[in-house]
Fold this protein.
Amino acid sequence: MKKSLLIFSALLLGVNASAQKVEFEEYTLDNGLHVILHQDKSAPVVVTSVLYHVGAKDENPERTGFAHFFEHLLFEGTKNIERGDWFKIVTANGGQNNAYTSDDKTYYYEVFPSNNLELGLWMESERLLHPVINQVGVNTQNEVVKEEKRLRMDNQPYGQLFGQVKKNLFKKHPYRWETIGSMEHLDAATLDEFLDFNHKYYVPNNAVLVVAGDIEIDQAKAWIQQYFGVIPRGKEVVRNFEKEDPITTEIRAEYQDPNIQIPMLVQAYRTPSMKTRDARVLDMISAVLSGGKSSRLYKKIVDEKKMALELASFSFSQEDYGIYFIYGLPMQGFTLQDLVKEIDEEIVKLQTELISEKDYQKLQNIFEKRYVDSNSDIEDLADNLATYYKLYGDVNLINTNIDIYRSITREEIREVAKKYLNTNQRLILDYIPEKNANN
């Protein structure tokens, strides 16, 4: 009976996964703008989004922070949208909007009632064709970005953690600096430099437009041609980033944070591009080690031995490289080195022993659920469509990426752990409270 129930559950999973298939249509305008349309009439809403293939890695090392700065700057206004009116227009028409920047991309989107699709398309075409970039806007957003940095990093406990890891793991590739960049670099930048950045990267052939939701395909295509088709093609963006040398000796580093009282241990490993199969295997390794309270690291170090207040790991994969993080906050009476010892024991087990069939099935269930959840929201689905096309080079991964996870074997999990999670290939960062010179 138990076996029959398991088979029945597996069949249900297969049905659910199939039901989640995302239908889409894609094409490219003459100016190089790629367009992806997804019709979903389950709710009267529509998402208009544009992903620009520009992130912090595309910046001049002496002008870091430009990509993130533009995320703010391009809400200032356009030739036909007065300064300060962008958010008023969106709100007045029942919509919401947002944007974000990473090392690899900048993403803008609006969510409107479906009868305002034309408005969303016009606004995004305005951002691309008619942005107003002047000294007033630059000065205004400079202060906004500085305040964001103070709140999220400078005055935030563990706010410098990611930056410290990046600068130690990357010496040549532009992943070595923080996405928010340097305030000194932004202060020193001229208006012409901002204009040049916009001219180089904010071009239709460096972008993908996604329209998802309650749409009529033919009408959407007509409006897209009307508003985006007239935008001139830009020069092709050429990238040729310097490759990192392999890490062959353990890196030791320390950072003193005045905003914390509890030290943090960080173990970090440089890993391959998110486009690789190994990156997916590392996602699974992360779930084995710290995916919930029954995971190996949490159960052993936090629950049973009570050596840590918190402990987790995750695989942060990007277009060119990734970072595998393990971090922990020790309980009083235990040191950062105590945590290193316990963590290393579990990694060695993963490198030398196959995970059990039971744990493997649990892992598969976790990733099936993630797959279903990742496309259940129309905003996330639009983001996924754009990202799979522009960063992975295959929009249909929105449907097939789960098949890669399904095909990963227990043996691969062991071998990938052996390949990347070695003591001579890692950073050990002691992230500690600031030392009082008077003590």
